[in-house]
Amino acid sequence: MITPKPRARALGLNLPGTPGPLNAITDIEGIEVGMTELLSSRDPSLMTRGIPVQTGVTAILPRGREPEPKPLWAGQFSLNGNGEMTGAHWVRDGGWFCGPILLTNTHAVGAAHQAAVRWMIEVYGDTWETNHLWAMPIVGETYDGVLSDINGLHVAEMHARAAIDAARPGPVTEGNSGGGAGMICYEFKGGTGTSSRRVKVDDQDFTVGALVQANHGLRPWLTISGQRVGELMLEDRVPDMVTERGSIIVILATDIPLLPGQLERLARRAAIGIGRSGSPGGNNSGDIFLAFSTANEMALPQCSGPWRNMTALNDEYLDPVYMAAVEAVDEAVLNALFAAQDVPFARPARGVCKAIDTQRLRAFFNLEK
Fold first, then answer.
1. How far is 279 from 271, CA to CA, in rounded Å?
2. How confident is the model at residue 33 (pLDDT cuts 50, 70, 90)?
3. Torsions phi, psi of 192, nearest 5?
4. What does the pLDDT look like over 277-292, one tens digit per residue?
5. How many CB atoms lie within 10 A of CB 340?
6. What CA–CA distance (Å, rounded) separates 181 from 198?
7. What is the pLDDT confidence band of residue 2, given thresholds at 50, 70 and 90?
């Protein structure tokens, strides 16, 4: 069993803001996260084409397994659109979605979408059978073809469903986990990361949480706590990687009552969060962000009367919320990097994609062991 590595904050980095108890997206009540991985290192039978398999699916259930479908008010923003997030058009138009969020590899979007649709039909069965409702779940992707046989189409509906069924509250496994199993970040092994921030508004405590699937960035860009450490760690880079060819999906969640327009603006702040670690949003990168709120819980519009009553935060109080999002995204990327483990390259089939050396970082930042 691999011993978990220290997260960014545990390493001793002086990171701003106050995290929730788990420092994870699951600090927001009701949110559950589940994962499944397909690893030829564990199951050699997966390697049917002679290329290693290192992939998976991450599932987020914003309202757990509640049997009544309820809208999650949401906003979406694409900093760079070389990627996919299903359901994004409706979020931008209607301002809400319901059901699970799945993150996987680029060629597994269809399988993950089918699993999410089937889950919604089963869990929300009565509502779906008695109304003309459609399932339009959120599925995001990043490309893991450098570390995995992405063209082998190994992720099937049953694997995505397994991630949904595994969803639980509590700590979230980071690094080589779920959809992040085969991802690369700043040419180190990347993957899944999460973080959260506490926000006080009018003497009430709220939380902003982030979960990222980090697969972006070139090594010289990497910046941690304002220090350009990537320029000092240029060994063991990804072969033949001249330009960026990865992506990052960011899911921001909060229990603060926000309107869809406010959530779209919150989603934009994920761009500032990923920029703190050095990424400019490269041309070949899909930097795609979703923000949602679990507040203002109510029935679906199709099952409601003509009027809606919603509570919303005054825009003049949004600055701390924006800062919380920026800080949580930045730390989530670092947590993805710090938790990751070495993985052999699949294409080209030579060498190893190294995890970042956290002990070396201790020396850079003069941190005590």
1. 9
2. very high
3. -95, 135
4. 999 998 889 999 999 9
5. 29
6. 29
7. low
Question: Following DSSP, what letter does each residue of 121-173 receive, concatenated?
Answer: HHHTHHHHHHTT-----EEEEE--TTTS-GGG----HHHHHHHHHT-BSS---
Here the tokens at position 78 are 């694409």
Which residue is catalytic, options 149, 287, 293, 330?
A: 287
Model confidence over 67-114: pLDDT tens digits?
999 999 999 999 999 999 999 999 999 999 999 999 999 999 999 999
Prediction pTM value: 0.97
Q: Which of 148, 195, 247, 277 is catalytic?
A: 247
| CA terminus-to-terminus distance, the chain | 23
Average pLDDT, the chain: 95
- The whole-number pLDDT of residue 68 equals 94
The torsion of the CA quartet 89, 93, 97, 103, rounded to 10 degrees, works out to 20
Residue 207 near residue 196 (C-beta atoms within 8 A): yes
Grouping H, G, I as helix, E, B as strand and the rest as coil, residue 59 is strand
* Active-site hit among 144, 285, 293, 330: 285
Residue type, 261: G
Known catalytic residue at 285: yes
Say if residues 286 and 142 touch (Cβ distance below 8 Å): yes
User: How many Cβ atoms are within 10 Å of 94's Cβ, its own excluded?
Assistant: 15
CB 293 within 8 A of CB 263: yes
- 247 tagged catalytic: yes
pLDDT tens readout for residues 213-244: 999 999 999 999 999 999 999 999 998 888 88
Please give, one letter per residue, the 3-state secondary structure of 250-315: EEEEECCCCCHHHHHHHHHHHHHHHHCCCCCCCCCCEEEEEEEECCCCCCCHHHCCCCCCCCCCCH
